[in-house]
Please model this.
Amino acid sequence: MTPTLFICVNRRRGAGSCSGGGAYEVMAVLRTEIEARGLGWDIRLSPCLGHCALGPNIKASPNGPLLHGCTDGKEVMARLLEWRRG
Ligand code: FES
Model:
């Protein structure tokens, strides 16, 4: 099954949120990394994943981790590749 990354892009007024924390910028890096590797993974925009104070948050599917503090796209990519290697 093709991996799908659900990236929270929620914005909360007056509070920390994934969008405000750089989720779109991380998503752009991940798109580039995935394309450069020819992985064909899907990326979907997600509503709030319920861990706003720990964001930006990304849920990997199927059965992947819920990653917190996703501010560095290359570091997130490394964590995701580790997940896929098992
Ligand atoms: S705003 Fe992203 S988890 Fe709530």
